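Progress note, sequence design subtask.
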């Protein structure tokens, strides 16, 4: 009995010692039963059957430092397999380059066992196998490169090594995460020659054989038109052109800036004579410290505000509206603006202030140098007087700090503004140093050559359009016309108008013809867009040619100048067949977009008419409007119409009874008017400048939900009719 208890106790001890296995986190153990794979033990407490089951070990290379300071490696059997990333110091290897130069390379390998079973059973000695595979792969790679390429292509070697090793070790259950080449050692004699050559290059002298110094002046850029400010805001704030227009429209409605939908980049003579009012308003009302400093300097330095004879004033380059500038008013509304709106306003203000500053001045140098019988040409310029650039100096990207790790940890973080200021200081210091160098240059002087090299290069394709510079491209589409006369005709017009270009881009994105990256604003065509382009190009190529627009512009311009009659222009269109299935609409621009009744008064007085302070006068402000339909006999209507009436009129003309539009068929004899942006007029009431009134007696009323809904619907209807005119959307209804 006692012997049995002893045996039982011995079995318990053996089981406790051999049958209980504790596996650490990020480790596994392979268990075999009677020499055959059984299972993989995960982290935690595990049990096996002693004698019948046993852990299967894996060979692993271990490196230790001996008492002599040297590192020694040996292979050790491990039963627990570590799944963490391992670093393997690949010993220095001798390899031969393509040009038969023996070099030594050592590297670090970062790999990880992802499948323990494969690491145990698919390869006998994993570390050694990886080492041998690395040797072979490295020799093959370097054997395809010459010495120069090897020394300059560490990144390429790292990437190709990692890819090759990862593919080869995949069946071993190993993932090679990265390979880092530490050092590349050429033979001592070659290294000495390289050092000597580098020293010789450093000590080379160049003789200045020709030297030309000159002064150069650069004036501030022209003021913003809509396309320019849209492009600028896309670059600075990564917003789309239609968003920019919406923001500037808001600034305009709050009387902070002038009218935004303009193609002009200059001022009229009349505006230039009164420009001091704008400046004084900014001085008194705009609280931005930076802008105030610029304005104060203008006053202190007595910069001229007389723009009349400058390039910023040109009546011939203004059609309806002059450039976008700050009014110097409306600051009571400024603080309630969103932050982005303030930034856009500040951009407009700075461009405006910059035109009063003197030109930037540069010192320019062109020189010819001779180096060992070879001739080189060089040029450069240094700013000696910032002038307007003090206001519009491009913000340099903050330089990235490359501080030591132990210093970075406790170093105070710098704000973007601080980084930009420091970067600007560095740039100023560089400019001063360059200027000092320029002054010392003389013909016949020997100068040190630090380095030179010959490079093969290829021309790069143009950068992709952004939503901002796409607006500029649309504005200047006429440059693509080969016919000189037509090109001149469309100059400054292009595709669309200042008011519609942003909406065109927005629509192209909405109907998925283009994609716009939200971060970079880069525009790319979609597959759908490319298909549409191919269809139009093969069926109606003239629709993609700005020449068609230019010819129409030329015809309309000739009518305006009374060089031909309007009937002649229409006859030409009819003879071309363009009007057979077309409805042609001609209308005035911005006519009814009035700020208040005083604007109506000005129109009346200009035309020598009597004016009464009554909203009904808006109905009598007639804006040119014409509609040509091949199926309708010509007639003249005296009743007031608006663009809101376009949709119901056209639908009725083609036989579709439109019962839901707020507008009226212009042939019905009913009056209907609409004031875009600031209000509307119905048969019963009107809304203007934020207030509601009854039409019968002009008394004020409180808006209810119905009135507000009506106003919103009016705006939607207005937009739809406007879109039908400009984008041929009638096809949508016909289908």
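Output:
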């Amino acid at each position: 009995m006692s012997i049995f208890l002893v045996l039982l106790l011995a079995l318990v001890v053996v089981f406790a010692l051999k049958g209980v296995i504790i596996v650490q986190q990020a480790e596994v153990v392979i268990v075999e039963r009677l020499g055959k794979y059984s299972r993989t033990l995960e982290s935690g407490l595990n049990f096996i059957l002693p004698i019948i089951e046993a852990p299967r070990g894996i060979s692993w290379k271990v490196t230790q430092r001996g008492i002599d300071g040297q590192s020694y490696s040996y292979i050790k059997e491990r039963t627990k397999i570590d799944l963490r990333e391992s670093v393997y110091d690949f010993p220095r290897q001798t390899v031969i380059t393509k040009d038969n130069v023996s070099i030594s390379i050592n590297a670090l390998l970062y790999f990880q066992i992802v499948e323990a079973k494969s690491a145990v059973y698919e390869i006998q000695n994993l570390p050694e196998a990886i080492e041998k595979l690395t040797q072979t792969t490295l020799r093959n790679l370097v054997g395809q490169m010459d010495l120069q390429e090897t020394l300059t292509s560490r990144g390429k070697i790292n990437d190709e090594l990692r890819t090759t090793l990862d593919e080869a070790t995949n069946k071993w259950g190993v993932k090679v995460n990265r390979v880092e080449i530490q050092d590349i050692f050429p033979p001592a004699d070659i290294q000495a020659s390289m050092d000597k050559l580098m020293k010789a290059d450093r000590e080379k002298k160049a003789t200045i054989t020709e030297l030309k110094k000159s002064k150069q002046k650069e004036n501030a850029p022209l003021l913003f038109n809509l396309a320019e400010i849209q492009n600028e805001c896309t670059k600075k704030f990564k917003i789309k052109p239609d968003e920019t227009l919406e923001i500037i429209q808001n600034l305009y409605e709050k009387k902070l800036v002038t009218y935004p939908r303009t193609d002009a980049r200059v001022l009229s003579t009349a505006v230039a004579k009164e420009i001091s009012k704008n400046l004084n308003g900014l001085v008194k009302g705009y609280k931005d410290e930076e802008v105030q400093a610029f304005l104060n300097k203008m006053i202190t330095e007595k910069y001229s505000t007389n723009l009349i004879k400058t390039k910023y004033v040109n009546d011939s380059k203004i059609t309806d509206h002059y450039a976008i500038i700050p009014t110097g008013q409306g600051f009571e509304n400024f603080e309630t603006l969103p932050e982005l709106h303030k930034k856009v306003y500040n951009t407009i203000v700075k461009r405006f202030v910059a035109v009063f500053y003197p030109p930037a001045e540069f010192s320019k140098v062109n020189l010819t140098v001779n180096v060992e019988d070879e001739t080189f040409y060089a040029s450069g310029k240094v700013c000696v007087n910032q002038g307007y650039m003090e206001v519009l100096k491009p913000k340099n990207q903050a330089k990235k700090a490359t501080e030591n790790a132990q210093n970075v940890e406790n170093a105070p973080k710098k704000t973007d503004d601080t980084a930009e200021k420091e970067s600007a200081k560095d740039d100023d210091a560089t400019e001063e140093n360059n200027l000092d160098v320029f002054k010392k240059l003389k013909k016949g002087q020997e100068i040190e050559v630090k380095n030179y090299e010959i490079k093969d290069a290829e021309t790069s394709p143009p950068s992709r359009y952004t939503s901002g510079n796409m607006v500029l491209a649309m504005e200047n589409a006429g440059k693509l016309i080969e016919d000189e006369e037509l090109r001149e005709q469309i100059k400054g017009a292009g595709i669309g108008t200042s008011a519609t270009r942003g909406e065109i881009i927005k629509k192209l994105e909405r109907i998925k013809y283009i994609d716009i990256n939200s971060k970079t604003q880069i525009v790319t065509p979609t597959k759908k867009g490319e298909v549409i382009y191919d269809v139009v190009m093969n069926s109606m190529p003239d629709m993609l040619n700005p020449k068609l627009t230019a010819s129409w512009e030329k015809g309309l311009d000739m009518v305006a100048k009374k060089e031909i009659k309007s009937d002649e222009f229409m006859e030409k269109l009819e003879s071309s067949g363009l009007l057979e299935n077309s409805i042609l609409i001609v209308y005035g621009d911005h006519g009814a977009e009035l700020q208040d009744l005083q604007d109506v008064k000005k129109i009346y007085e200009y035309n020598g008419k009597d004016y009464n302070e009554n909203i009904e006068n808006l109905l009598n402000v007639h804006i040119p409007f014409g509609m040509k339909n091949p199926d309708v006999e010509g007639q003249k209507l005296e009743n007031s119409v608006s663009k809101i009436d376009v949709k119901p009129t056209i639908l009725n003309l083609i036989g579709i009874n439109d019962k839901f539009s707020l507008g009226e068929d212009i042939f019905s004899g009913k009056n209907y008017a609409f004031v875009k942006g600031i209000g509307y007029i119905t048969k019963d009431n009107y809304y203007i400048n934020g207030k509601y009134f009854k039409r019968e007696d002009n008394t004020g009323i409180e808006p209810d939900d119905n009135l507000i809904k009506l106003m919103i619907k009016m705006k939607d209807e207005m937009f739809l009719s406007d879109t039908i005119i400009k984008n041929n959307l009638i096809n949508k209804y016909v289908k």
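Residues 226-356 form a domain with the Topoisomerase I; domain 4 fold (CATH 1.10.290.10). Work on this subtask will continue into the next period as scheduled.
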